[in-house]
Each structure stands twice: as structure tokens, then as C-alpha cells.
Amino acid sequence: MTAPRIPLLLEGQFQASAATHTQAVRNPATQEVLAEVPFATADEVDRAVAAAKEAFKSWREVAPPQRARVMLTFQHLLKKHHDELAEILAKETGKTFADAKGDVWRGIEVVEHACNVSSLLMGETVENVAGGIDTYSLVQPLGVCVGITPFNFPAMIPLWMFPLAIACGNTFVLKPSEQDPMTPTRIAELFLEAGAPKNVLQVIHGGQDQVNQLLRHPDVHAISFVGSAPVAEHIYRTGTAHLKRVQCFAGAKNHMVVMPDAQPQQVVNNLIGASCGAAGQRCMAISVAVLVGSAREVIPHLAASFRELRPGVWDDSGAAYGPVISAKAKARIQDLIRQGKEEGAVCAFDGSDCTVPDYPQGNWVGPTLFTGVTPEMTIYREEIFGPVLLVIEVETLAEAIALINANPYGNGCSIFTASGAAARKFQHEIEVGQVGINVPIPVPLPFFSFTGWKKSFLGDLHAYGKQAVRFYTETKTVTARWFDEDIEHPHGPNMTIQLK
Ligand code: NAD
């Protein structure tokens, strides 16, 4: 049986692409081909932008509470289809069902935030800035916005972008990851079912060429990108060179500092979930444990717990994690593990030869623990994006902070401690955008913003929260004066204007 071809959402309807270049979407546990994804033609990309540009003319005039009502219905449909979406997502990403449900749920939370758009669009007013003159600001949409998303959260990250952009009055072209396009396509179907007008959302599939065309397109106003650091740099440079507003969320190397007074069992449980959950393919995964002083005593317990983690397919309820996304990703992680050993790190637990009975074709990589890691090693410098935890031992909190601040990435970090003073010093001095205190993965809820720093984020305004509303809108400032004699005019507003 041939696999179904994923349609484009183009000009208000789902339709087959004329593309000749396609790629298989595979179940990472079995290599079964679930679908074929077309790489849209240049003409289709142009048509998507043109349709979005045309739709903007009327969508921008729709009252914000009416736009919010579309989001309310959309939120309801996403909740109704939560498990169905999670199943599609789990099959194409390899995530466990629990993880897949979390991916969908974190996206739903952003749609809930978008339902609040009317109050998020409120401007500011100062009355009487000079005699009889008022100044106030209006918040208006930009036009056509583009979203380019990665494989690791195929529900959450598209939902970080298009609902808020569209609720603000923009229209949107989404280019999802070619590795797992089925989930965003189903989400787009639900968006239309929610009553979104034709053409406010277009979904174009593809890769590098389609992205590059969008980056240079004269009718695109803003680009939101989430993906790896080298691609983020390319997107940022190219998008800004073409005078777009650009925000890029990129790679990471997230540290968790463990103080000697932290509760050891909590440390082990949290480190395991944060490093190996979702097979380590989270941008906020903890990939480095920085153990301060006697906190090093957790190492044997960590190694023992890594041994107990069992991989499995999406509907195996006892599985702690699934396969990584592709055979290529698996080979890359294995290669990094090999380099770690060659460069002198101690591999306390090696998952590079992981297998799962009945699923010999799966892209399995087991939890891997390295101790004796130093900052020059490749495994420390590169984002591994697999279930690999590095341990670095230091003597003081100040040393831990200096180590993290010297790292070029700054997405997330955390500290485990019983000391308020240590936590306070850490939160104040650390040069990382998202900080957890006894919370391993501090992803903020959508009424805050997702605030990575340094090489983990290129741009000025972050995802969701108030910052995304600023990103997807322009502020217009009006200074107004009304002359007193207008009040007394006998003919009211219908007066004939007479120029002197
Ligand atoms: P990726 O960079 O390979 O791909 C991301 C998107 O860019 C895809 O849609 C892809 O088609 C497109 N793309 C790839 N190469 C391109 C090129 N040369 N030119 C133009 N477009 C190109 O990323 P990925 O492997 O899908 O996702 C994993 C990465 O995303 C990790 O580095 C992870 O840390 C990062 N990520 C970051 C965040 C964050 O918030 N900072 C969140 C999730 C994922």
C-alpha cells in the first residue's frame, strides 16, 4: 500500500502539491513509512504568501473579540482531539504517549492565551500631554507572518506561533518540520473546522529551499523560527538582511547545579526525567549536571537509575522514552558518545548499543552518563540532542556559575538546593534566560514569555506572552487635539468643511 501524501493548506483548502520532490515520514520505532511529504514548488510558496496577503486585508478589520472566538472554538477542538493528535504525534516522532500528550497540551495552553487577545492588544493613553492634546497608542497587526518549526515539538511549537499571530490580526504561512508534518497538518484541519476564515493560515511543506524563498519574499513581514543554532543564524542573517522582523529560538546546553544540601533522591529523579525524557530531544533538556562539592555522591545512584530506564514504543505504558527521530540523528549521537570516550571522559553508563526486542529497526539510543567531563570536550561544546547526561564536578557555587556563564548557550538552567541564599545568588548572577529553582525544566506558562538568551535566541522579542504580541504587532502613536469651537458647532458632525 502506498503511503498517503500530505496535502498543503493552500488558498483556503487542503490540496495535493505539484511537487516532484518528496520525503518519507517514518515511524522512528519501526521505519514504517507513514506518509510522503511534498517539498512545495516555488509557485506554491508564492501562492501561499499571495493568498495570505490578500486575506490580511479583511482579517485585520475583524474585531479582536471575534478573532478570540475563533481561538476559543479552536481550543475546544484541540482538547476534544487531544488523544487523537497525541497518537499521530507519537507515531511520527517516537515519543511515548504521555510525552506526546504533553506536547499537545503545552500548545493548547498557548491557544488559551491567544483567547485573551483583546486585552493583550490594549494600547496606552496619556491625557493632556499639552494643553488640550492627548496621546494614545494603537496596536496593529503587521501583515503576513511566517513560522518555521523543528521536529521535536510538532504540536507545541506551531501553536507557539500561528494562533497568537493570527489572533493579533495577521495572516500566517507555516512551514513545519519535514520530519513530522502530520501533526501540524491535522492541527491546521482543526483550525479551519474552528471557523477560521479561508486563507488566514497557509501550510507549506518542505525544507531549506522553501524556507529560503520565504525569507526573501517581499510580502513577508515577520519570521519566527525554532531549530538548531547554525540554521537559526542563517535565518536571522538572511531574514534581517531582507528587512524582516525575525525571532529565532535555537539550540541549547542546559545545566543543573546540584548543591551539597539538595535532597539526593529528588536530584536523581529530576535529573533522569530532565535528561532522558523524550530521548533527550527537548531544547530545555538538562544535558549537564554540575555537582558542587559533596553533591558528587549522587553519581553512583544516577548510574544505577539510568540502568533501570526502559525504552519502548509509543503505546508501551512502561517505557520511559522512545527512539530518536531518525537513523541520521542516532548515528550523530553515537558518534558524539564515541568522541566523548576518545577525548577522555568516563562513560559511566553507555547506551549507544541500545536495542528493543521486537523493534530491531528502531532508532534506539539508551541513556548515557559521562563523568569527568571538561569544557573543551566535544560532548560539552556540541548540543547532543539525545539522552546523554554529562557530569562536571566543581567545588563552589561561584565556580558553577562561572562555568555556565562561559557557555555560549543560555536557554535554561536550574539549581537544586535547600538554601534560599544560594538560589538567590544563582538567579541573580546566572546569564541564562530561564531559571529553575528546584524545578529542572523551567518552561514558563504562556502568560510569561519563553526567554532564552545568548546563542539560544537571536532577536529582541520572545515567544508567547506579552512579548509575542509585541513581536506580531506594530505600535502606532496618535497625538490628537480637538478645538473647543467644534463642541459649539450648530451643525454637529455633518458640518460642511469650508477652507479659508
Ligand atoms: P533544524 O534546524 O534542522 O530544522 C528546523 C527547521 O529549519 C525545519 O523546518 C527545517 O526544514 C528548516 N531547515 C533546516 N535546515 C535549513 C537550512 N539550511 N535553511 C533553511 N531552513 C532549514 O532543527 P531540528 O533538528 O528540526 O530541531 C532540533 C533543534 O531545534 C535543536 O537544536 C533544538 O535545541 C532546537 N529547538 C530549540 C528550541 C528553543 O526554544 N530554543 C525549541 C525546540 C527546538
Keyphrases for this structure?
six-stranded mixed sheet; 500 residues; alpha/beta; seven-stranded mixed sheet; single chain
Strand and helix layout:
Elements: E1 8-10, E2 13-15, E3 22-26, E4 33-38, H1 42-59, H2 64-80, H3 82-93, H4 97-114, H5 117-120, E5 125-130, E6 133-141, E7 144-148, H6 156-167, E8 171-175, H7 182-193, E9 201-203, H8 208-216, E10 220-226, H9 229-241, E11 245-249, E12 254-258, H10 264-276, E13 286-292, H11 299-308, H12 327-342, E14 346-349, E15 368-371, H13 378-381, E16 388-394, H14 397-406, E17 409-410, E18 412-416, H15 420-429, E19 434-437, E20 453-454, E21 457-458, H16 465-471, E22 473-481, H17 484-488
Parallel strand pairs: 7-8, 7-10, 8-9, 10-11, 12-13, 12-18, 13-16, 15-16, 18-19
Antiparallel strand pairs: 1-2, 3-4, 5-6, 6-22, 11-21, 14-15, 17-20
Helix pairs in contact: 2-4, 2-7, 3-4, 3-7, 4-6, 10-11
Bound molecules: nicotinamide-adenine-dinucleotide.
Residues 148-153, 175, 177-178, 207-208, 211-212, 226-228, 231, 234, 249-252, 283, 383, 385, 411, 452, 456 line the site of nicotinamide-adenine-dinucleotide (NAD).
Task: Kindly describe this structure.
The protein has 500 residues and is an alpha/beta fold. It is built from 17 helices and 22 strands. It has helices at 42-59, 64-80, 82-93, 97-114, 117-120, 156-167, 182-193, 208-216, 229-241, 264-276, 299-308, 327-342, 378-381, 397-406, 420-429, 465-471, 484-488; strands at 8-10, 13-15, 22-26, 33-38, 125-130, 133-141, 144-148, 171-175, 201-203, 220-226, 245-249, 254-258, 286-292, 346-349, 368-371, 388-394, 409-410, 412-416, 434-437, 453-454, 457-458, 473-481. The strands form six sheets. A seven-stranded mixed β-sheet has the order 14-15-16-13-12-18-19, sandwiched between helices. The N and C termini lie far apart (80 Å).
